[in-house]
Write a structure and sequence with these properties.
Elements lengths: L1 E7 L3 H8 L7 E4 L16 E2 L7 H11 L6 H20 L25 E2 L5 H15 L3 E4 L3 E8 L2 E8 L5 E11 L20 H8 L4 E2 L4 E8 L13 H5 L3 E3 L13 H15 L4 E4 L5 H7 L1 H9 L9 E10 L2 E3 L11 E3 L4 E2 L12 H17 L21 H17 L9
Parallel strand pairs: 1-2, 1-8, 2-5, 8-15, 14-16
Antiparallel strand pairs: 3-4, 6-7, 7-8, 9-14, 10-13, 11-12, 12-13
Helix pairs in contact: 1-4, 1-10, 2-3, 3-10, 5-11
The structure holds flavin-adenine dinucleotide (FAD).
C-alpha cells in the first residue's frame, strides 16, 4: 500500500487534516473502529470562539489560568486567533450552531470561563461537527477511508518516518508506505477503569512514539472530568454530564443534599473537591441537581443528557442524579511544534494525541475541539508546502519483518506507556 499522506485516526483532527490537503495529494485515513466511533462524536458542551477583540485578553487569561500558567503562550495565541476562521469554515461546511431569534450565534458557558463564548448545537456539538466533516471526506476523490484498520507500529529508519505497519480489516498486516504520516489517535481513556472516552482509545500512538524515542511532552498530565454519571459494576464507557449543565445552573450536593462547592471551579479543582467530599461522606458519588434549570432549557439544550438519565431510571426534572469524576482528557502527548511536526521527520501529530502545550496542566472546557481543528489544518498546510521531509536519498524501508509479532509488540509498548503516564508498572490506570 502506498499513499502520499497516511492519517491514523478519523476523529475531527484526522478528518480536518485530510480535508485541508490539496486534492492533488492522495490521503488514506484509517480508524481502528468504525468511522462514527471516535471521541469527537461524543463532545457535548461545544466549541470556543473568540467573540470579539474585547474578549481576547479574557479568553487568553481563562485558558492560562485553567492551565496553571504552564501553557505555551504562542500556541494559545494561535488557537484563539484562528477560532473565528475555523467556525466560519465549519459553518460553510454546513455545521449548525444554536442561534438567537435575530440569527446571531447563541453562546453558552462552562467552568472557568469568565464569559459566555462557547458555541453549541443542542448537547451533540461534536457529532454535528464531525459528521459533517465525515460527509465531506466521503465525497473527496483524493481521500480513502479505511475502517477497522489498526496502527501497529510506524515504519521508520534514521529518524525518518516512511509510513506504518497496519493490521487490515481482514486480519492481514501490511506496510503502508507514505511520504507523510499523521498520528491522530485521540486520547488514552481506554487505559483507565473509568473514562468518558471510547474503550478502544488506548494511546497507541503514544506507545509507538515512546518505543521510537519520539519526544513526548507533559506525559503525566491527565484530566479527570468532575461529573460522569455514576453506574456501579460496569466496564462501559462512563457517560459524561457536561459542564455546560453546571454553566446553566446545575448544583452539586453531598449525601445530605447540601451544596459543598462552587460548581464552576476549573475541572481539576472541582474534581479534588468532589473526591474530598466523597471521602468525607464515605460515598461512591455525589448528587447533581438539574432541577435548577428550566424544563424548556433542559429539553432544548440537553436532550441527550435528559434521555440518557431517563434510560437509567432518573427523571432530571424531579430528582438528582449520581455523578462521579472519571478520566476524560489527555493534555500531554507527542510533542509538536506550531505546525504539528513531531521530533521525527515525515511524522506529524494532531488532536488529543499531540501536545503543543496549548492546554498547559489542565484544559479549559471546550478548547479541545478548537485546538484539534486549528492545529490539524496547520499540519495539512505544512505538508502541502513540503513539510519536514529530510533531503532526498533516504534508504527506502525493506518489506515487513516476517519474524516480528507486531500485535504483541504493541501490547508491550502500551505497558511502557501506562508506566510513563501513570507511574505504574502493570495494569490499567484507575481514575
Ligand atoms: C464525552 C466527551 C465529551 C467531550 N466534550 C467536549 C466538548 O464539549 N468540547 C470540546 O472541545 N471537547 C470535548 N471533548 C474532547 C474532544 O471530544 C476530544 O479531545 C477530541 O474530539 C479529540 O479528537 P481527535 O481527533 O484527537 O480524537 P478522536 O475523535 O478520539 O479520534 C481518534 C481516532 O483514532 C483512532 N485510533 C485510535 N487508535 C488507533 C490505532 N491504533 N489505529 C487506528 N486508529 C486508531 C480511533 O478509532 C478514532 O478514529 C469531549 C470528550 C469526551 C470523551
Amino acid at each position: 500500500m502506498k499513499t502520499d499522506v497516511l492519517i491514523i485516526g478519523s476523529g475531527c483532527s484526522g478528518l480536518y487534516c485530510a480535508l485541508h490537503l490539496p486534492e492533488t495529494m492522495q490521503a488514506a485515513v484509517i480508524t481502528k473502529s468504525d468511522l462514527e466511533s471516535s471521541d469527537s462524536f461524543l463532545a457535548q458542551g461545544g466549541i470556543c470562539m473568540l467573540r470579539d477583540e474585547a474578549d481576547y485578553q479574557s479568553y487568553f487569561e481563562d485558558t492560562l489560568r485553567a492551565g496553571h500558567y504552564e501553557n505555551d503562550r504562542k500556541s494559545v495565541e494561535i488557537m484563539i486567533r484562528a477560532s473565528r476562521q475555523v467556525i466560519e469554515d465549519l459553518v460553510s461546511c454546513g455545521v449548525r450552531f444554536q442561534r438567537g431569534e435575530d440569527g446571531s450565534f447563541a453562546f453558552t458557558r462552562e467552568g472557568a470561563h469568565s464569559r459566555n463564548r462557547i458555541l453549541y448545537y443542542k448537547d451533540i456539538t461534536g457529532k454535528e461537527i464531525t459528521q459533517k466533516l465525515l460527509d465531506m471526506a466521503r465525497k473527496r476523490p483524493n481521500i480513502r477511508l479505511l475502517e477497522h484498520t489498526q496502527l501497529l507500529d510506524i515504519a521508520c529508519r534514521d529518524n525518518v518516518c516512511q509510513g506504518a505497519v497496519l493490521r487490515m480489516a481482514d486480519g492481514s498486516s501490511v506496510l503502508a508506505r507514505a511520504d507523510f504520516t499523521v498520528l491522530a489517535t485521540g486520547g488514552i481513556g481506554g487505559l483507565y477503569a473509568h473514562s468518558t472516552n471510547y474503550r478502544h482509545l488506548t494511546g497507541d500512538a503514544i506507545a509507538v512514539a515512546l518505543k521510537h524515542r519520539i519526544a513526548l511532552k507533559n506525559a503525566d498530565y491527565v484530566q479527570i472530568h468532575p461529573t460522569a454519571f455514576y453506574e456501579s459494576g460496569t466496564q462501559r464507557r462512563s457517560f459524561l454530564i457536561s459542564e455546560s449543565v453546571r454553566g446553566e445552573g446545575a448544583r452539586l450536593y453531598d449525601k445530605n443534599g447540601m451544596r459543598f462547592v462552587d460548581e464552576l471551579l476549573p475541572r481539576d479543582q472541582l474534581t479534588q473537591a468532589i473526591l474530598a467530599q466523597m471521602r468525607k461522606d464515605g460515598t461512591l458519588f455525589v448528587w447533581e441537581d438539574l432541577r435548577t434549570i428550566p424544563k424548556e432549557e433542559l429539553d432544548a439544550h440537553f436532550p441527550n443528557i435528559v434521555a440518557y438519565c431517563a434510560s437509567m431510571g432518573y427523571d432530571v426534572t424531579r430528582e438528582c442524579i449520581p455523578v462521579v469524576p472519571a478520566q476524560h482528557y489527555y493534555m500531554g502527548g507527542i510533542q509538536t511544534d506550531y505546525s504539528s511536526r513531531t521530533s521525527m521527520a515525515g511524522l506529524y501529530a494532531v488532536g488529543e494525541t499531540a501536545c503543543n502545550g496549548v492546554h498547559g496542566r489542565n484544559r479549559l472546557a471546550s478548547n479541545s475541539l478548537l485546538e484539534s481543528l486549528v492545529f490539524a489544518k496547520r499540519a495539512a498546510e505544512d505538508i502541502a508546502s513540503g513539510g519536514n521531509l529530510p533531503q532526498p536519498g533516504i534508504v527506502p524501508l525493506a518489506e515487513l519483518d516476517a519474524g516480528c509479532d507486531y500485535e504483541a509488540a504493541l501490547q508491550e509498548y502500551r505497558a511502557a506507556a501506562v508506566q510513563k503516564i501513570c507511574g505504574k508498572e502493570h495494569g490499567a490506570c484507575s481514575a
